[in-house]
Amino acid sequence: MTLVKDPVCGMMVPPDGDRMALHKGRPFRFCSELCKAAFLKGPEKYSIGHPNGGLPSHGTRRIAYFSME
């Protein structure tokens, strides 16, 4: 099964999930109601210039792993 990216948090979700919103005739899928609500407050922020509804690729998102070892 091919997954699609939640445009708000970047999590991969099934394309047939029940959390979906249309924006300018294009469907967007979400991992949670929280992400869906954030998208609906400002859909342009998450859809302009991102053909797959993905996150911006300009390096603003960081992920860190911390280990107690």
Please sum up the structure shown.
This protein has 69 residues and is α+β, with helices and mostly antiparallel strands.
**CA gyration radius, whole angstroms:** 13 Å
Oligomeric form:
single chain
Question: Quick one: how many beta strands?
Answer: 4
Number of helical segments with 4 or more residues: 2
Decide which structural class fits the backbone: alpha+beta
Based on Cα principal axes, name the global outline: globular
Helix and strand sequence: EEEEHH
* Residue share in helix: 10-25%
Query: Could you list the spans in which at least 5 consecutive residues all have pLDDT below 50?
Result: 51-56
Main pleated sheet: 2 strands, antiparallel
Distance between the termini: 37 Å
- Provide mean pLDDT, rounded: 81
Which percent band covers the strand fraction? Answer: 15-25%
Order of strands across the biggest sheet?
A: 1-2
Tags for this model:
69 residues; alpha+beta; 17% strand; globular; 4 strands; two-stranded antiparallel ribbon; single chain
What does this entry look like structurally?
The protein has 69 residues and is an alpha+beta fold. It is built from two helices and four strands; from the N terminus they run E-E-E-E-H-H. The chain has helices at residues 33-41, 43-47, and strands at 4-5, 12-13, 20-23, 26-29. The strands form two sheets. It has a two-stranded antiparallel ribbon. The protein has a two-stranded antiparallel ribbon with strand order 3-4. Mean pLDDT is 81; it is low at 51-56.
